[in-house]
Amino acid sequence: MATKRRLPFPNPTKASPRSILETKTATKRRRDESAENRKAVYLVAELSTNEPSHSVFMVDAAAAAAVAGGGGEVRRAHPLSGSGLTGAKHGMSFVAVRSEHGSWILGAGGRGGCTVIYDPITMEEFRGPHLHWPKQEPVLVSVGGVVYAISRRPRVRLASRLDYLPWVESLSFNMGVPRLDRMDSPYWKSLPPPPLFPCLLRPSEYRNPPDYCVSSFAVVGSHILLSMEQLPGEEQRGTYGFHVVDKAWEKVHDCNLPFVGQAVSIGGSLFAAAMPNNGGGGASVFHMSIIKVSSSSSPASWQLLVQEFPVASLGRMIPQPRIFSPLGEGSFCSVGWLASSGRSHGCQIKEYQIEGAESKKDLQATVQVKHQDQTYQFKGQSRFLDTHMPIVAALSM
Protein backbone atom coordinates (compact mmCIF):
# COMPACT_ATOMS: atom_id res chain seq x y z
CA MET A 1 0.00 0.00 0.00
CA ALA A 2 1.25 3.47 -0.83
CA THR A 3 2.09 6.01 1.87
CA LYS A 4 2.14 9.75 1.54
CA ARG A 5 5.42 11.67 1.55
CA ARG A 6 5.83 13.86 4.61
CA LEU A 7 5.55 17.46 3.53
CA PRO A 8 8.01 20.04 4.93
CA PHE A 9 6.62 22.14 7.74
CA PRO A 10 6.29 25.89 7.09
CA ASN A 11 8.64 28.28 8.86
CA PRO A 12 7.21 29.15 12.28
CA THR A 13 6.14 32.73 12.85
CA LYS A 14 5.78 34.50 16.14
CA ALA A 15 2.13 34.93 17.08
CA SER A 16 0.73 37.86 19.01
CA PRO A 17 -0.92 37.28 22.43
CA ARG A 18 -4.28 38.18 20.89
CA SER A 19 -3.90 35.63 18.08
CA ILE A 20 -2.88 32.97 20.62
CA LEU A 21 -6.00 33.72 22.69
CA GLU A 22 -8.20 33.58 19.58
CA THR A 23 -6.62 30.27 18.58
CA LYS A 24 -7.23 28.77 22.03
CA THR A 25 -10.83 30.00 21.99
CA ALA A 26 -11.45 28.56 18.52
CA THR A 27 -9.87 25.24 19.55
CA LYS A 28 -12.08 25.03 22.65
CA ARG A 29 -15.15 25.89 20.56
CA ARG A 30 -14.34 23.13 18.06
CA ARG A 31 -13.76 20.68 20.92
CA ASP A 32 -17.09 21.59 22.52
CA GLU A 33 -18.93 21.33 19.20
CA SER A 34 -17.27 17.98 18.54
CA ALA A 35 -18.46 16.66 21.91
CA GLU A 36 -22.00 17.88 21.27
CA ASN A 37 -22.09 16.26 17.82
CA ARG A 38 -20.73 12.93 18.98
CA LYS A 39 -23.05 9.99 18.70
CA ALA A 40 -24.25 7.89 21.60
CA VAL A 41 -22.67 4.44 21.69
CA TYR A 42 -24.86 1.39 22.29
CA LEU A 43 -23.16 -1.74 23.58
CA VAL A 44 -24.69 -5.16 22.98
CA ALA A 45 -23.47 -7.68 25.55
CA GLU A 46 -23.97 -11.44 25.50
CA LEU A 47 -25.45 -13.00 28.63
CA SER A 48 -24.94 -16.44 30.14
CA THR A 49 -28.66 -17.23 29.93
CA ASN A 50 -30.49 -18.54 26.88
CA GLU A 51 -33.51 -16.26 27.26
CA PRO A 52 -32.64 -13.47 27.09
CA SER A 53 -29.25 -13.99 25.48
CA HIS A 54 -28.26 -10.34 24.97
CA SER A 55 -28.78 -6.96 26.59
CA VAL A 56 -28.31 -3.38 25.33
CA PHE A 57 -26.53 -0.60 27.24
CA MET A 58 -25.88 3.03 26.35
CA VAL A 59 -22.77 5.08 27.08
CA ASP A 60 -22.76 8.83 26.58
CA ALA A 61 -19.72 9.67 24.47
CA ALA A 62 -20.34 13.43 24.67
CA ALA A 63 -20.50 13.37 28.48
CA ALA A 64 -17.36 11.25 28.67
CA ALA A 65 -15.52 13.69 26.42
CA ALA A 66 -16.36 16.53 28.82
CA VAL A 67 -14.73 14.81 31.81
CA ALA A 68 -11.63 16.73 32.84
CA GLY A 69 -8.51 14.65 32.41
CA GLY A 70 -10.30 12.18 30.15
CA GLY A 71 -11.36 9.18 32.16
CA GLY A 72 -10.70 9.94 35.82
CA GLU A 73 -14.32 9.29 36.68
CA VAL A 74 -15.96 5.88 36.49
CA ARG A 75 -19.32 6.16 34.78
CA ARG A 76 -22.24 3.81 34.56
CA ALA A 77 -23.43 2.11 31.40
CA HIS A 78 -27.19 2.59 31.29
CA PRO A 79 -29.22 -0.59 30.62
CA LEU A 80 -31.87 0.09 27.97
CA SER A 81 -33.42 -3.31 27.37
CA GLY A 82 -34.43 -4.05 30.96
CA SER A 83 -33.50 -7.63 31.76
CA GLY A 84 -32.47 -8.18 28.13
CA LEU A 85 -33.68 -8.53 24.55
CA THR A 86 -36.42 -11.13 24.81
CA GLY A 87 -36.17 -12.14 21.15
CA ALA A 88 -32.38 -12.38 20.96
CA LYS A 89 -30.57 -15.70 20.56
CA HIS A 90 -26.99 -16.86 20.96
CA GLY A 91 -25.15 -16.76 17.66
CA MET A 92 -26.68 -13.45 16.59
CA SER A 93 -24.79 -10.50 15.16
CA PHE A 94 -25.96 -6.89 15.54
CA VAL A 95 -25.93 -3.78 13.37
CA ALA A 96 -27.31 -0.23 13.48
CA VAL A 97 -29.72 0.56 10.65
CA ARG A 98 -31.08 3.96 9.65
CA SER A 99 -33.78 5.05 7.24
CA GLU A 100 -36.05 8.06 6.87
CA HIS A 101 -38.40 6.35 9.33
CA GLY A 102 -35.91 6.16 12.22
CA SER A 103 -32.95 4.27 13.64
CA TRP A 104 -32.86 0.78 15.11
CA ILE A 105 -30.59 -1.98 16.32
CA LEU A 106 -31.09 -5.23 14.42
CA GLY A 107 -29.92 -8.64 15.56
CA ALA A 108 -30.01 -11.66 13.26
CA GLY A 109 -28.61 -15.17 13.27
CA GLY A 110 -28.30 -18.16 15.54
CA ARG A 111 -29.72 -21.63 15.10
CA GLY A 112 -33.28 -20.43 14.70
CA GLY A 113 -32.45 -17.80 12.07
CA CYS A 114 -34.39 -15.26 14.13
CA THR A 115 -34.45 -11.49 13.75
CA VAL A 116 -34.92 -9.02 16.59
CA ILE A 117 -35.33 -5.25 16.12
CA TYR A 118 -34.84 -2.78 18.96
CA ASP A 119 -35.68 0.93 19.02
CA PRO A 120 -33.27 2.58 21.51
CA ILE A 121 -35.37 5.76 21.67
CA THR A 122 -38.76 4.25 22.50
CA MET A 123 -37.17 1.08 23.99
CA GLU A 124 -39.59 -1.04 21.96
CA GLU A 125 -38.63 -4.47 20.72
CA PHE A 126 -40.03 -6.12 17.59
CA ARG A 127 -39.75 -9.57 16.08
CA GLY A 128 -38.57 -9.47 12.49
CA PRO A 129 -38.90 -12.06 9.73
CA HIS A 130 -36.75 -15.19 9.86
CA LEU A 131 -33.71 -15.63 7.64
CA HIS A 132 -34.19 -18.08 4.79
CA TRP A 133 -31.49 -20.21 6.38
CA PRO A 134 -29.93 -19.85 9.87
CA LYS A 135 -26.54 -18.16 10.00
CA GLN A 136 -24.09 -18.33 12.90
CA GLU A 137 -22.73 -14.87 13.75
CA PRO A 138 -23.33 -13.54 10.23
CA VAL A 139 -21.65 -10.48 8.78
CA LEU A 140 -24.24 -7.69 9.08
CA VAL A 141 -23.93 -4.34 7.31
CA SER A 142 -26.43 -1.57 6.64
CA VAL A 143 -26.48 0.48 3.43
CA GLY A 144 -29.20 2.97 2.50
CA GLY A 145 -31.79 1.63 4.94
CA VAL A 146 -31.20 -2.00 3.92
CA VAL A 147 -29.52 -4.63 6.12
CA TYR A 148 -27.39 -7.28 4.41
CA ALA A 149 -26.73 -10.61 6.16
CA ILE A 150 -23.79 -12.62 4.80
CA SER A 151 -22.74 -16.05 6.04
CA ARG A 152 -19.46 -15.71 7.89
CA ARG A 153 -18.64 -19.40 7.35
CA PRO A 154 -20.57 -20.61 4.27
CA ARG A 155 -21.31 -24.35 4.17
CA VAL A 156 -22.21 -26.68 1.32
CA ARG A 157 -23.80 -29.46 3.34
CA LEU A 158 -27.50 -29.24 4.06
CA ALA A 159 -27.04 -31.38 7.18
CA SER A 160 -24.95 -28.67 8.85
CA ARG A 161 -28.18 -26.77 9.68
CA LEU A 162 -26.19 -23.52 9.66
CA ASP A 163 -24.91 -21.23 6.89
CA TYR A 164 -26.34 -23.18 3.98
CA LEU A 165 -27.74 -21.42 0.90
CA PRO A 166 -28.72 -18.64 0.52
CA TRP A 167 -25.48 -17.21 1.83
CA VAL A 168 -26.48 -13.58 1.25
CA GLU A 169 -29.82 -11.98 2.19
CA SER A 170 -31.21 -8.46 2.54
CA LEU A 171 -33.97 -6.81 4.58
CA SER A 172 -35.29 -3.30 3.86
CA PHE A 173 -36.33 -0.67 6.44
CA ASN A 174 -37.25 1.91 3.80
CA MET A 175 -40.97 1.16 4.16
CA GLY A 176 -40.81 1.12 7.95
CA VAL A 177 -39.99 -1.51 10.55
CA PRO A 178 -40.21 -5.02 8.99
CA ARG A 179 -42.27 -6.54 11.80
CA LEU A 180 -43.21 -10.19 11.83
CA ASP A 181 -46.73 -9.42 13.05
CA ARG A 182 -47.61 -7.38 9.93
CA MET A 183 -48.61 -9.16 6.75
CA ASP A 184 -47.40 -6.34 4.48
CA SER A 185 -43.93 -6.06 6.05
CA PRO A 186 -40.81 -6.76 3.99
CA TYR A 187 -39.04 -10.07 4.40
CA TRP A 188 -35.49 -11.29 3.86
CA LYS A 189 -34.63 -11.56 0.15
CA SER A 190 -32.04 -13.93 -1.30
CA LEU A 191 -29.09 -12.39 -3.15
CA PRO A 192 -26.28 -13.91 -5.23
CA PRO A 193 -23.19 -15.07 -3.28
CA PRO A 194 -19.68 -13.76 -3.93
CA PRO A 195 -17.44 -15.90 -6.17
CA LEU A 196 -15.15 -16.26 -3.14
CA PHE A 197 -17.71 -18.61 -1.58
CA PRO A 198 -17.84 -22.37 -2.36
CA CYS A 199 -20.06 -21.92 -5.41
CA LEU A 200 -18.14 -24.08 -7.90
CA LEU A 201 -16.68 -27.00 -5.95
CA ARG A 202 -15.66 -30.16 -7.73
CA PRO A 203 -17.78 -33.24 -6.90
CA SER A 204 -14.87 -34.76 -4.96
CA GLU A 205 -14.61 -31.64 -2.77
CA TYR A 206 -18.14 -32.07 -1.46
CA ARG A 207 -16.99 -35.09 0.56
CA ASN A 208 -14.51 -33.01 2.53
CA PRO A 209 -15.23 -29.37 1.66
CA PRO A 210 -12.61 -26.77 2.51
CA ASP A 211 -13.27 -24.24 5.24
CA TYR A 212 -14.32 -20.77 4.17
CA CYS A 213 -14.45 -17.81 6.55
CA VAL A 214 -14.86 -14.07 5.99
CA SER A 215 -11.83 -12.26 7.41
CA SER A 216 -12.57 -8.59 6.65
CA PHE A 217 -15.33 -6.40 5.30
CA ALA A 218 -16.36 -2.77 4.84
CA VAL A 219 -18.93 -0.58 3.12
CA VAL A 220 -17.38 1.88 0.68
CA GLY A 221 -19.87 3.98 -1.25
CA SER A 222 -22.40 1.66 -2.88
CA HIS A 223 -20.19 -1.41 -2.44
CA ILE A 224 -19.93 -4.04 0.27
CA LEU A 225 -16.32 -5.24 0.26
CA LEU A 226 -15.35 -8.74 1.34
CA SER A 227 -12.16 -10.78 1.76
CA MET A 228 -11.67 -14.34 3.00
CA GLU A 229 -9.24 -15.87 5.48
CA GLN A 230 -5.99 -16.95 3.90
CA LEU A 231 -4.51 -20.32 4.82
CA PRO A 232 -0.72 -20.62 5.32
CA GLY A 233 0.98 -20.89 1.94
CA GLU A 234 -2.23 -20.03 0.10
CA GLU A 235 -2.35 -17.26 -2.47
CA GLN A 236 -4.57 -14.29 -1.75
CA ARG A 237 -8.02 -14.63 -3.29
CA GLY A 238 -8.48 -10.90 -3.63
CA THR A 239 -11.29 -8.54 -2.64
CA TYR A 240 -14.80 -8.66 -4.09
CA GLY A 241 -17.39 -5.91 -3.99
CA PHE A 242 -21.17 -6.19 -4.06
CA HIS A 243 -22.87 -3.23 -5.76
CA VAL A 244 -26.09 -2.71 -3.80
CA VAL A 245 -27.86 -1.10 -6.79
CA ASP A 246 -26.76 -3.51 -9.52
CA LYS A 247 -26.93 -6.44 -7.05
CA ALA A 248 -23.82 -8.01 -8.58
CA TRP A 249 -20.41 -9.08 -7.28
CA GLU A 250 -17.18 -8.04 -8.97
CA LYS A 251 -13.51 -8.45 -8.15
CA VAL A 252 -12.20 -5.01 -7.21
CA HIS A 253 -8.66 -5.85 -6.09
CA ASP A 254 -6.22 -8.74 -6.52
CA CYS A 255 -5.12 -8.51 -2.87
CA ASN A 256 -7.11 -9.15 0.28
CA LEU A 257 -8.25 -6.21 2.38
CA PRO A 258 -5.26 -5.14 4.54
CA PHE A 259 -7.11 -5.34 7.88
CA VAL A 260 -9.09 -7.80 9.98
CA GLY A 261 -12.74 -7.57 10.96
CA GLN A 262 -14.83 -4.58 9.99
CA ALA A 263 -13.49 -1.21 8.88
CA VAL A 264 -15.80 1.51 10.23
CA SER A 265 -16.32 4.81 8.44
CA ILE A 266 -15.05 7.85 10.34
CA GLY A 267 -16.04 10.42 7.75
CA GLY A 268 -15.70 10.75 4.00
CA SER A 269 -13.25 8.21 2.62
CA LEU A 270 -11.53 7.53 5.96
CA PHE A 271 -11.97 4.23 7.82
CA ALA A 272 -10.60 2.80 11.06
CA ALA A 273 -9.74 -0.89 11.37
CA ALA A 274 -7.51 -3.36 13.18
CA MET A 275 -4.33 -4.69 11.62
CA PRO A 276 -3.53 -8.41 11.37
CA ASN A 277 -1.41 -9.80 14.21
CA ASN A 278 1.25 -10.97 11.75
CA GLY A 279 1.68 -7.33 10.76
CA GLY A 280 2.32 -6.20 14.32
CA GLY A 281 -1.32 -5.64 15.26
CA GLY A 282 -2.52 -2.21 16.26
CA ALA A 283 -4.96 0.14 14.60
CA SER A 284 -4.77 1.92 11.28
CA VAL A 285 -6.68 4.54 9.36
CA PHE A 286 -7.36 3.77 5.72
CA HIS A 287 -8.33 5.98 2.82
CA MET A 288 -10.57 3.81 0.62
CA SER A 289 -12.45 4.64 -2.54
CA ILE A 290 -13.84 2.77 -5.53
CA ILE A 291 -13.54 4.11 -9.06
CA LYS A 292 -14.66 2.82 -12.43
CA VAL A 293 -11.86 2.20 -14.90
CA SER A 294 -11.99 1.23 -18.56
CA SER A 295 -9.63 0.62 -21.43
CA SER A 296 -9.81 -0.06 -25.13
CA SER A 297 -9.16 -3.77 -24.54
CA SER A 298 -11.53 -4.41 -21.62
CA PRO A 299 -14.96 -3.25 -20.48
CA ALA A 300 -15.42 -0.83 -17.61
CA SER A 301 -14.92 -2.33 -14.16
CA TRP A 302 -14.72 -1.19 -10.55
CA GLN A 303 -11.34 -0.80 -8.86
CA LEU A 304 -10.58 -0.38 -5.16
CA LEU A 305 -7.98 2.19 -4.09
CA VAL A 306 -6.56 1.75 -0.58
CA GLN A 307 -4.03 3.83 1.29
CA GLU A 308 -2.94 2.91 4.82
CA PHE A 309 -1.99 5.28 7.64
CA PRO A 310 -0.85 3.51 10.85
CA VAL A 311 -2.23 5.25 13.93
CA ALA A 312 0.01 6.42 16.79
CA SER A 313 -0.73 8.27 20.02
CA LEU A 314 2.04 10.05 21.92
CA GLY A 315 4.56 8.35 19.66
CA ARG A 316 3.34 4.82 20.48
CA MET A 317 1.33 2.50 18.27
CA ILE A 318 -2.20 1.80 19.49
CA PRO A 319 -2.70 -1.82 20.61
CA GLN A 320 -5.09 -3.92 18.58
CA PRO A 321 -8.72 -3.57 19.70
CA ARG A 322 -11.46 -6.02 18.84
CA ILE A 323 -14.41 -3.68 18.37
CA PHE A 324 -14.49 -0.23 16.75
CA SER A 325 -17.30 2.28 16.63
CA PRO A 326 -17.39 5.67 14.83
CA LEU A 327 -18.15 8.74 16.95
CA GLY A 328 -18.32 11.45 14.31
CA GLU A 329 -16.13 13.22 11.77
CA GLY A 330 -12.56 12.10 12.29
CA SER A 331 -13.18 10.31 15.60
CA PHE A 332 -13.77 6.73 16.68
CA CYS A 333 -13.51 4.52 19.74
CA SER A 334 -12.45 1.02 20.67
CA VAL A 335 -14.06 -1.11 23.36
CA GLY A 336 -12.30 -3.43 25.79
CA TRP A 337 -13.59 -5.58 28.65
CA LEU A 338 -12.28 -5.25 32.22
CA ALA A 339 -11.96 -8.06 34.76
CA SER A 340 -15.02 -8.39 36.98
CA SER A 341 -14.95 -7.29 40.60
CA GLY A 342 -17.65 -8.77 42.81
CA ARG A 343 -21.02 -8.03 41.24
CA SER A 344 -19.67 -5.24 39.06
CA HIS A 345 -18.36 -5.59 35.53
CA GLY A 346 -16.79 -2.90 33.45
CA CYS A 347 -15.55 -1.92 30.04
CA GLN A 348 -13.03 0.62 28.88
CA ILE A 349 -13.73 2.84 25.92
CA LYS A 350 -10.78 4.53 24.26
CA GLU A 351 -11.77 7.55 22.19
CA TYR A 352 -9.54 8.76 19.37
CA GLN A 353 -9.61 12.07 17.52
CA ILE A 354 -7.55 12.29 14.33
CA GLU A 355 -5.54 15.48 14.08
CA GLY A 356 -6.17 17.22 10.78
CA ALA A 357 -8.96 14.90 9.67
CA GLU A 358 -10.77 17.86 8.08
CA SER A 359 -8.01 18.07 5.46
CA LYS A 360 -7.58 14.44 4.43
CA LYS A 361 -4.85 15.33 1.94
CA ASP A 362 -2.58 16.40 4.82
CA LEU A 363 -2.51 12.99 6.49
CA GLN A 364 1.06 11.84 7.03
CA ALA A 365 2.56 8.36 6.79
CA THR A 366 1.66 7.80 10.46
CA VAL A 367 -1.53 9.46 11.69
CA GLN A 368 -1.28 11.18 15.07
CA VAL A 369 -4.36 11.02 17.26
CA LYS A 370 -5.46 12.46 20.57
CA HIS A 371 -7.03 9.90 22.85
CA GLN A 372 -8.71 9.54 26.22
CA ASP A 373 -9.89 6.55 28.20
CA GLN A 374 -13.21 6.22 29.99
CA THR A 375 -14.32 3.37 32.25
CA TYR A 376 -17.95 2.28 32.50
CA GLN A 377 -19.45 -0.08 35.06
CA PHE A 378 -22.33 -2.52 34.60
CA LYS A 379 -23.62 -2.56 38.17
CA GLY A 380 -25.63 -5.49 39.40
CA GLN A 381 -25.08 -7.46 36.21
CA SER A 382 -23.61 -10.86 37.06
CA ARG A 383 -25.09 -12.76 34.12
CA PHE A 384 -22.60 -11.87 31.41
CA LEU A 385 -21.21 -14.70 29.34
CA ASP A 386 -18.00 -15.99 30.91
CA THR A 387 -15.63 -14.96 28.15
CA HIS A 388 -12.81 -12.48 27.66
CA MET A 389 -15.12 -10.21 25.65
CA PRO A 390 -18.89 -10.54 26.22
CA ILE A 391 -19.53 -7.28 24.32
CA VAL A 392 -20.33 -8.37 20.77
CA ALA A 393 -21.19 -5.00 19.19
CA ALA A 394 -20.60 -1.28 19.71
CA LEU A 395 -23.05 0.73 17.62
CA SER A 396 -23.21 4.52 17.27
CA MET A 397 -26.49 6.24 16.51
Automatic annotation (TrEMBL):
Q: Which stretches of sequence are listed as region Disordered?
A: 1-35
Tell me where on the tree of life, at the top rank, the source sits. Eukaryota
> Which is one Pfam family of this protein?
DUF1668
Q: What is this protein called?
A: F-box associated domain-containing protein
